[in-house]
Amino acid sequence: MGYIKIPTSDVLQVLLARIFGGEVSPEINPLFPVVILDVRLPRILTAAIVGGGLAIAGVVFQAILLNPLADPYTLGVSSGAAFGAALALVINITMLGSFSVGLFAFSGAMLALLSVLYLSSVDGRFSSNTLILSGVIVAAILSAGIGFIKHLADEQVSVIIFWLMGSFASKTWSDVLLTLVFTLLTFLVAMFYSRDLNIMSMGVRTSDSLGVDTVGTRKILLTTASLITAICVSVSGIIGFIGLIIPHLMRFITGPDNRKLIPASALAGAILLLMADTFSRAVLPSEVPIGVLTALIGGPFFCYIFRQRQLGK
């Protein structure tokens, strides 16, 4: 469709007409309502919701695993979801309609997470030092698997490659509804257990002695965080480092209290990813896949956090 400049007054008039059931002025180009309501608004809302969902997942992963470098991308969960979604795309599974890709993405995410936890655990306890290394190993294996799928994809390979790099192009209201439902569910579950997360940050022995069901809470939150990651990846492709950057930035404002950190991170993640998508779509000469842009920003930040951790700061 190409780039179309729409005046702000026309955007407001179209939105108000849709909300309050009025008529759009005949002076407005009849193409504008279609562009605003069926192209741009679903894309904007999907980007914001996915950003919020990934940020919540990052907070949960870092709180449960007690590792500041943990996020869906560095733990290999995003790669697992991408592997499952790519597999569903290449073999064209439609048994569950539009939910088929999401289901395969969730299965891939859970398998990846379980593999990482198995590799990094000793005597049933997670090793913080080897957690990220395990995530890198699992993500490397899954990347090889994705490469094999792309080899089999033949004519669909370009679609899968662009999808894996992350994009909000061609999003629909179904994507908005799907991501909104699961992001709200994840948010409510995370907030319900936010007090337990604060206690668990003091260590397993302390949380057990204070009556927190550490094992049960950890299982519920790991499943919930993996689910929202899988849903986000199935809709937008791999978008890395949102779950890593946002919680760290918000801790400077809210502190480590998860009751404040979770909603603040959800809001900041939505704003950051929406700004990144807008910058990629409207400012750059040609659209850059959003996953590439966030990796360019988040990669150096990851190195900074890793170096600070090595220095014990």
Give a structural overview.
Helix content is 75%, strand content 1%. It is mainly α. Strands 1-2 form a two-stranded antiparallel ribbon. Strand 1 and strand 2 form a beta hairpin. The longest helix is centred in the first third of the chain and has 35 residues. It is globular, with a radius of gyration of 20 Å.
What fraction of residues sit in β-strands?
Answer: under 5%
Q: Can you count the beta strands? A: 2
Number of helices: 13
- Distance between the amino and carboxyl termini: 50 Å
Record the strand order, biggest sheet. 1-2
Q: What is the H-and-E element order?
A: HHHHEEHHHHHHHHH
Helix content bin: over 70%
Poorly predicted runs: none
User: Would you tell me the overall average pLDDT?
Assistant: 83
Give the radius of gyration: 20 Å
Largest pleated sheet: 2 strands, antiparallel
Structural class of the secondary elements?
Answer: mainly alpha
Label the overall shape: globular
Characteristics:
single chain; 313 residues; mainly alpha; two-stranded antiparallel ribbon; 13 helices; 2 strands; 75% helix; 1% strand
Strand and helix layout:
Layout: H1 8-20, H2 31-65, H3 77-90, H4 99-120, E1 121-122, E2 125-126, H5 128-153, H6 157-164, H7 173-192, H8 194-200, H9 204-209, H10 214-236, H11 242-254, H12 258-283, H13 290-310
Antiparallel strand pairs: 1-2
Helix pairs in contact: 1-2, 2-7, 2-10, 2-11, 2-12, 3-4, 3-5, 3-10, 4-5, 4-10, 7-10, 11-12
